[in-house]
Structure formats: structure tokens, C-alpha cells
Amino acid sequence: MAEIFGVVSGAIGVTAIFKQCVECFEYIQLGRHFSRDFGRYRLKLKIVKRWLDRWGEGVSIDKNPRLNAPELDDTLAREIKAILEEIVLPFQTINKSSKRYEITASKEDLECLGNENLEPVFQRRNTRCARGSWPG
Predict the structure, then answer these.
(1) What value, to the nearest 5°, has the Cα angle with vertex 40 and ends 39 and 45?
(2) Overall pTM > 0.90
(3) Backbone dihedral angles phi then psi of residue 74, each to the nearest 5 degrees
(4) Rg (CA), the chain
(5) Per the domain annotation, does 20 fall within a domain?
(6) Do 28 and 43 share a structural domain?
(7) What residues contact residue 67 under an 8 Å CB cut-off, 6+ apart?
(8) CA-based max dimension of the chain
(9) How is 15-83 classified by DSSP, letter by letter?
(10) How far, rounded to the nearest angstrom, does the alpha carbon of residue 64 sit from its chain's CA centroid?
(11) Residue 2 is part of which domain span?
(12) Do residues 44 and 126 touch, judged by C-beta distance below 8 A?
């Protein structure tokens, strides 16, 4: 084992290993304010979802034949489709990873966090976002 580490550390270099060690501490720092960060990112996702919903309504995405079956020469419709596929792709990847995790995880590890896990300020903002009443 020590020989393997020696070969690997010789190839990588001490500087690279040091940088990796320092980067590991950044992950810990990210978790320090998890409740606040979770609330902030959850709120951002809700806002972006609302923007996407409104865009879909604005272009009548369900009723627009141009967007339902874009023709090969319709560049705009094809670009829109490609952008939407890029939005969906990371979510599909995360969903697949989550399903693999579900196989071995305990029930309490699978609980989803909700409004009750948020700091009070984000609980209020999430409620406003859900109702559609934006502070002005």
C-alpha cells in the first residue's frame, strides 16, 4: 500500500495533493450554513421555475404547433428545444443518482427537507413565492 501511495504521490506531486486537501475543507465550510444556504437555493429554484412557467404560458407552449413538433429548418424552435433539454439533463442525472442512493440508504436519510427545516426568513419567502405574492 505504501508503495502504491509513493508512486501515486510521486506522479501527482505534493503541491497537487496539498491543494486537494485544502479544497476538502471548502466542502465543510459549505455545510456550515446549510439551513441558510438551503433556503436561499430553494427560493432561487422556485423563482426560476415560476419564470419558466410564465415563459411557457407566454408562448402558449402547449398549443403552439411550431414548438410541439419543430421542423428541421426551424432553427429557433430547435434552439429552444436544445436549451430546454440542457435544463432537464442535470435533473435527470441527479434523479438517477438519487435512485441508486435509495437502494442502500435508511428511511431517515431519505427524508426530504421542507419549509420546517428553513430559517424563519426563508419560510416566509417560500410561502410568499408559493402564493404568488411578491414583496414590492
Answers:
(1) 95
(2) no
(3) -90, 90
(4) 22
(5) yes
(6) no
(7) 59, 61, 77, 80, 81
(8) 65
(9) HHHHHHHHHHHHHHHHHHTHHHHHHHHHHHHHHHHHHHHHHHHHTTTTT-HHHHS--TT-HHHHHHHHH
(10) 29
(11) 1-32
(12) no
**CB 35, CB 43: distance < 8 Å:** no
Do residues 106 and 120 both lie within one domain?
A: yes
- The amino acid at residue 74 is D
Residue pointed to by grid coordinates 450554513:
33
Residues 78 and 112 in one domain: yes
- Provide the residue-wise pLDDT of the chain in tens; the chain has 136 residues: 444 444 454 456 667 777 777 777 676 666 667 777 777 888 888 888 888 888 888 888 888 888 777 777 888 888 888 888 998 898 889 888 888 878 888 877 776 666 666 666 565 655 666 665 544 3
